[in-house]
Write a structure and sequence with these properties.
mainly alpha, 3 domains, Serine Threonine Protein Phosphatase 5, Tetratricopeptide repeat, 0% strand, 22 helices
Length: 430
């Protein structure tokens, strides 16, 4: 068979891909390069349920289709958004149910993630086909939000909220307010939060601070973390209510538990300055790093240590991106793996931030990730911290701290750290 990509011949009886450019071909000899073909190949080889594990699917696509990086990223984002799970769950349902689920996936990819409507529809159609949920769309019928809005017949609060977000992004605040209010009146939490923001700032209509607080309170009752923070802010400042520091602090705690970074920063500020709580700089630092998602607050317990294999597949995806000289893709996967506790990925992402490879340079963030990996016992991260203290990068020059980290790295088998440590100690003796 002749490869449809590079034009070289290969034996299709022994393998279904070109040995030169690794392009996979169908049995008819056509190169597989589109998303639908890639997913069909994966499901035929490993089963449709494979797509329910987006990390494993991404690793398989990276192995079999290393050249198709654009399709791979689109597939990763689509599966990461839960598209396969939603469509797999309705594959045996009536056609109307399947279409409704697919339309919901398209809206999520388009409005929340920012993928173009036509591309989102094609991705959802490809995933649906692969998991056995046959759906097809006429791409010309996928209307932009502005055209949909003109019909004024949307009743679903989620769709109304999505339209509000669309008009908010393009600064058409009156239209955004119209749709946010429609969704909020149907008890949509996020829409209630936006109503509070709009009333507080006077966007799209008259400013109404008292009305804004009422909307924030309603959104907080529906579990919106940022609204809980704003509710605390009103109590803290005595805006449209009695000043009550106890209630304010309670709101900030609730919001921080749900992952609101503003609330975590506010609590950290309280501990830094000794406002409403006893001054505690160490606890303030912990609150700045606190990301919520657990009832175990910083003063109660340390974060549990991650499992050794957490993030391994994401880490391997990053290494494949590096092999393809895709620095941005590598940085993205390193970050995802680092966030779930993969020690090597933490150090690698720190290096990306330190050198500006695939992401903007940020020595402060680089130091933070190196420190996490170093605390986990990784010698190269301990060496990197030693270098930063030795050169005075982000931190003041400090030979004692440098020697401390070089010593740790040397004990863990880092030869270069041992050499530098020896030189520093010799210089101290002279």
């Amino acid at each position: 068979m002749v490869c449809g990509r590079c034009g070289r011949a290969f034996d299709e009886t022994k393998q279904d891909y070109c040995g030169y450019c690794r392009t996979v071909h169908t049995k008819k000899g056509e190169p597989i390069r589109d998303l639908k073909g890639i997913l069909r190949y994966i499901t035929e080889k490993f089963g449709a349920e494979t797509l329910l594990d987006f990390r494993r699917t991404d690793a398989l696509i990276a192995d079999f289709f290393p050249k198709e990086s654009q399709a791979r990223r689109l597939c990763f984002v689509t599966l990461y958004d839960g598209c396969a799970k939603k469509l797999y769950a309705v594959r045996e349902k009536p056609f109307e149910v399947r279409c409704a689920a697919a339309a919901g996936c398209i809206k999520s990819l388009r409005d929340e993630i920012g993928i173009k409507g036509r591309v989102a529809a094609e991705a959802v159609e490809a995933v649906g086909c692969a998991v056995g949920c046959e759906i097809s769309f006429k791409k010309s019928e996928i209307l932009p939000a502005s055209e949909t809005e003109s019909k004024k017949n949307i009743t679903d609060p989620a769709e109304q909220y999505s339209l509000g977000r669309h008009f908010d992004r393009i600064h058409e605040y009156e239209k955004a307010l119209y749709w946010f209010e429609n969704a909020a009146l149907q008890d949509h939490g996020e829409a209630e939060y936006y109503m509070g923001s709009y009333r507080l700032e006077g966007r799209g209509g008259v400013q109404d601070v008292a009305g804004a607080r009422e909307w924030f309170v309603r959104a907080a009752e529906n579990g919106v973390a940022q609204a809980e923070y704003m509710k605390g802010y009103f109590y803290a400042e005595g805006i449209a209510c009695e000043l009550d520091e106890d209630k304010a602090y309670e709101c900030f705690l609730k919001a921080a538990k749900k992952g609101c970074s503003d609330a975590s920063d506010m609590i950290a500020l309280c501990y830094e300055n000794g406002v409403h709580v006893e001054k505690n700089p160490e606890l303030a630092k912990k609150w700045k790093k606190y990301t919520g998602g657990t009832d175990e607050l910083p003063e109660e317990t340390e974060a549990p240590e991650p499992l050794p294999d957490d993030g391994e597949e994401l880490y391997q995806s990053a290494r494949r991106c590096l092999a393809e000289k895709d620095a941005e893709g590598a940085a993205m996967f390193y970050r995802r793996a680092a966030e779930v506790g993969h020690i090597k990925a933490q150090c690698s992402y720190g290096k990306c931030l330190y050198t500006g490879s695939g992401v903007p340079k940020d020595p402060a963030e680089a130091f933070r990730w190196f420190k996490l990996a170093a605390d986990g016992g990784l010698n190269i991260a301990q060496y990197n911290l030693g270098v930063m203290y030795l050169k005075g990068v982000y931190v003041p020059k400090d030979n004692e701290q440098a020697k401390h980290y070089f010593s740790l790295a040397a004990k863990n088998g880092h030869e270069e750290a041992a050499k530098i440590l020896k030189k520093l100690r010799r210089a101290d003796n002279e």
